[in-house]
Amino acid sequence: MTASSYSFAATICSLATRSRSPRQSSPPPNLRLTLRPAGQSPILRSIRPIASPSGNKHTHKIKAAAAEMATEKGKGNVQVYDTEEDLSVSLAKYTAELSEKYAKERGAFTVVLSGGSLIKSLRKLVEPPYIGSVEWSKWHVFWVDERVVPKDHPDSNYLLAYEGLLSKVPVLPGNVYAINDALSAEAAADDYETCVKHLVKNKIIDQSEANGFPKFDLMLLGMGPDGHVASLFPGHPHLEENKQWITYVKDSPKPPPERITFTFPVINSSANIALVVAGSGKAHPVHVALGDGQSPDLLPVQMVSPEGELTWFLDKQAASKL
Ligand SMILES: O=C(O)[C@H](O)[C@@H](O)[C@H](O)[C@H](O)COP(=O)(O)O
C-alpha cells in the first residue's frame, strides 16, 4: 500500500506546546448491575440479575437470543446477540438513531471510534438504508486512541476506519480529526487535546456541565481480552489520570507500543457509550465486568461509567460466562 492510495484528507490539528500537569489519582467508579424490566424490543427478553450475591448460578444463564440488563443507576443496558452479524445490524441502527437525534438537536454528531474489530462491526452503516439516510455531513469523527504511526501504516486506526467506513460514506474530510503523525507520542497527545479544546470552544463538541470535560455524543469502544479499552491498559498509572483529556503511552502491551489515548474523565463524560464486544476470547473480562467473574486487578473496562447511557453489544460467545 502506498500513501497515494489515500486521498481522504483528514484534519490534522496543529501543534501547540504547553505544559502538562502532574497526574492525580481518583477512585474509579464501579459498575454495579441490577435487574431492569425486560426491554420493549421483541428480540429482547429479561434474564435474572447477574450481580445478585445470593443468586443460583443456573439462573444467571442467558436463556434467550438476546437479553437486556441495566446498571444500578438505570443507565445502560446489556444486549446479547446470537451472532456477530446480528450485533452489527443492531449497532448500525443504534448509531443511525443517535446520529439523527444529535444532528437534529445540535446540528452536529460527534462520534469517537476505536481501532480493532469495532470497525468491522460498523459495516452495516455503509449499506442501505443507512448509507443513504444518515446525515453524514453532520458527523465529526475522532479516535479514542490511535497508534503513533503514519496514516498509511497497517497499524493505523485512521487507516482502518478510512478503509472500512470513512472512504465509503460522504463524511466531510474536514470533519475527520486524525492525529498529527509527524509528532512524538507526547506531542501528538498534546496536539490532539488542543484540537479537542478548540472544538469544545466552538461548540462542535459538547461539554459536560458537571466537570467541564468534553462530552462526545457517541463513543464506540472495543475491549481487549485483558479488559483494556482505548489504550488504557490494566495496571497502568494512566488509569488514574484525572486532569489531562488525552495522554500517551510508550509501552503498550498490545503492539505497537506508542499510542495516544483519551483518559477516563473524557470517556466517562460521554453522552453515549457503546461497548462492542464479540468472541469467546472476551468472555472472561465480560464475566468480570458484568457478572461474578474475578480478576486480581480492576479491569479498565470496569471503569467505564458514563455520565450518559452505556450500552453493551455482546455476541453469545462474549456473553458465554454470564
Ligand atoms: O488501537 C487499539 O488497539 C484499539 O482502539 C483498542 O482499544 C481496541 O478497541 C481493543 O484492543 C479491542 O480490539 P479488538 O476488538 O480487535 O479485540
From TrEMBL:
Q: Where is this region: Disordered?
A: 17-38
Give the CDD domains listed for this entry: 6PGL
Source species, domain of life:
Eukaryota
Which GO terms are recorded in the biological process aspect for this UniProt protein?
A: carbohydrate metabolic process; pentose-phosphate shunt
User: InterPro entries recorded for this chain?
Assistant: 6-phosphogluconolactonase_DevB (IPR005900), 6PGL (IPR039104), Glc/Gal-6P_isomerase (IPR006148), NagB/RpiA_transferase-like (IPR037171)
Keywords attached to this Swiss-Prot or TrEMBL record, sorted alphabetically, are: Hydrolase
Report the EC code(s) recorded for this entry: 3.1.1.31
Question: Which reaction equation describes what this protein catalyses?
Answer: 6-phospho-D-glucono-1,5-lactone + H2O = 6-phospho-D-gluconate + H(+)
Q: Which GO terms describe its cellular component?
A: cytoplasm
Molecular function (GO) terms for this protein are: 6-phosphogluconolactonase activity
- Pathway(s) per entry: Carbohydrate degradation; pentose phosphate pathway; D-ribulose 5-phosphate from D-glucose 6-phosphate (oxidative stage): step 2/3
Residue stretches making up the Glucosamine/galactosamine-6-phosphate isomerase domain? 83-312
**NCBIfam families to which the protein is assigned, alphabetical:** pgl
Q: What family does the Swiss-Prot or TrEMBL record give for this protein?
A: Belongs to the glucosamine/galactosamine-6-phosphate isomerase family. 6-phosphogluconolactonase subfamily.
What protein does this entry describe? Probable 6-phosphogluconolactonase
Q: Which organism is it from?
A: Escallonia rubra
